Prior knowledge:
Elements: E1 3-12, E2 15-25, E3 29-34, H1 41-48, E4 56-61, E5 64-66, H2 71-76, E6 79-82, H3 94-98, E7 105-106, E8 109-110, H4 112-123, H5 141-154, E9 159-163, H6 171-186, E10 190-194, H7 198-204, E11 207-212, E12 215-222, H8 228-236, E13 254-263, E14 270-275, E15 279-283, H9 290-297, E16 303-310, E17 313-315, H10 320-325, E18 329-332, H11 336-340, H12 347-352, H13 356-359, H14 368-381, H15 398-412, E19 416-420, H16 428-443, E20 447-451, H17 455-461, E21 464-469, E22 472-478, H18 483-494, H19 499-510
Parallel strand pairs: 3-10, 3-11, 6-9, 9-10, 15-20, 15-21, 18-19, 19-20
Antiparallel strand pairs: 1-2, 1-4, 4-5, 7-8, 11-12, 13-14, 13-16, 16-17, 21-22
Helix pairs in contact: 4-5, 14-15, 15-16, 18-19
Amino acid sequence: MRFAVENVRKTFPGVIALDGVSLDIRPGEVHALVGENGAGKSTLIKIVTGVYRPDDGRLLIDGREVRFASARDAIAAGVSVVHQERNLVPRFSVGENIMIERPPTRRGLIDYRGVHEQARRFLDMIDPSIDTRTEVRRLSVAQMQIVEIAKALSFEAGLLLLDEPTASISGHEAEELFAVLRRLKREGKAIVFVSHKLEEVVGLSDRVTVLRDGKVVIAGEPIGAMDRGRIVAAMIGREERVAEIGDRVLSDEPVLEATGIATSLGHRNVSFTLHKGEILGLYGLVGAGRTELARALIGDARMTAGVLRLKGAPVSIDNVSQAIRKLRIGYISEDRKAEGLILAHPVRSNVAITVWRRIVSGVGLLCRRSETEVAEPLARKLEIRTPSLEQTVGKLSGGNQQKVSLAKWLAAGVEILIIDEPTVGIDIKTKTGIHELIAEITRGGVSVLLISSDMPEMITLADRILVMRNFSIAGSIENNRRYEPMSREIMNLIHGVAAGEGADAMREAANG
């Protein structure tokens, strides 16, 4: 299938989202579509998939103009998509979600055995460990993303669009996905790949189109003729800036010590020490137990063995409220929209929510002025871009939403902050800003436990990296911030390669 977008224009009240955008997508290639948040990428994808209709311009399949009145029209025409926003039914099983648009039937009834058999075929392409009979609501965010990808593959469409498909999955799962995409490319499928991770764009794509402010600034150029610097400059209008995190002074003072921790979720013999002002990384494949360990540390799951010490004193964390108010441990969820923020409430309320008990009046009422007094200096310090503190958080960009999440924990005066996937779905320029903010709060003495599936992000930020495998700590690595040797050592631990073997492999690689 050859798909073309010609001079498409789309406006919303007060905003020109797309201004004369053209895109030529050829069979048997991966075409990268990149740009900052707000550049128009998601709007363009929604037009191609029938969610939006263009104000002007046209869509063509194999030279013939097509008009999609709905997403179902696009699916019928051979267009499949993995949207950035999840589109799964939480109480349906994995198999039912994958086959929801065209479940196999038998004598006029849904053949549930067939549903799971067919779903298994597409899920096995990426992650065979997920049970098709598990309810989606019981999956992690990363596992939900894998189900979304399997669902898109199940349509066996001529054009496959993927909007940030690796945002929540680890490098290993991403490589499995890329292997599938390369196979589909060999089979003649046309693929559009949207990602903020430029190492993926360069490694996977054949051509690249760059959008900025709703316009095309690089139009379908061969990826071999590009370099990262040129792509970034086209996206943001200047060269990339590296996060400034190198001037931090690390302390030997332990603030959180775990010894032989086991949990009701399946962790066993987990031991680590987090020091004051340190960024301690937790890296591992999807399902390694990173997020689950974080939830146990804030009292959202039961510890069944071991000792946890806070500033040298043994503590027992019974619930989330105790972790926040008594122990000063905060947690920024990987799913900020569902768990971290109240999207329909204003910025001031979201920032002040962790201190409501402190600022409530004597008669139990919250005062807008008190919330503003808490929120205003933090919004200024973190440079939250909002028309006013009265703006609802749901209308902010992803990067500014994440800044609000950081602000609310700074307002609470936390001493330990667990940050789960801090820059999922955030563009390069904003990602650099978030990295600098995380480094900055540690200069003030806050200790950070960082969970990230983004290997470059982990190596950029973490002072030490704990590698998790099968709900245990596989090893600890001092971070020298040299990407190639660090990434090899991390992957050796993930895959159970012995230290000597890993060192031998690294020497062999260094010697060519």
